[in-house]
């Protein structure tokens, strides 16, 4: 199975704990402020629609560039291996 650098980065404890903290803060802010919640929901729907449209439009380009993406992903994974080796703090949650 091909490694995906984005998935690897998101699985780093320092990144995943930061994302969880941001998600909790975002959710609690929406719950505490009804006006903010309605603005956020409009924004979220817009982002989802724009993302779907962008993916549909980019699909032919992505298919043509797949070999280049594979090479770039492999290079990025090797770079991440090096970073993980040199910076042990990446393996710890933010609070540590």
TrEMBL record:
- Does the keyword Zinc-finger belong to this entry? no
* UniProt name for this protein: PLIN1 protein
Q: By its UniProt entry, which InterPro entries does this protein fall under?
A: Perilipin (IPR004279), PLIN1 (IPR042998)
- Which protein family is it in? Belongs to the perilipin family.
Q: Name one Pfam family in it.
A: Perilipin
Its GO CC terms are:
lipid droplet
Localisation per UniProt entry: Lipid droplet
Question: Record's superkingdom?
Answer: Eukaryota
Q: Coiled coil where?
A: none
Which UniProt keywords are given for this protein, alphabetically ordered?
Lipid droplet
Q: Mind listing the GO biological process terms from this record? A: lipid metabolic process
- Its principal location? other
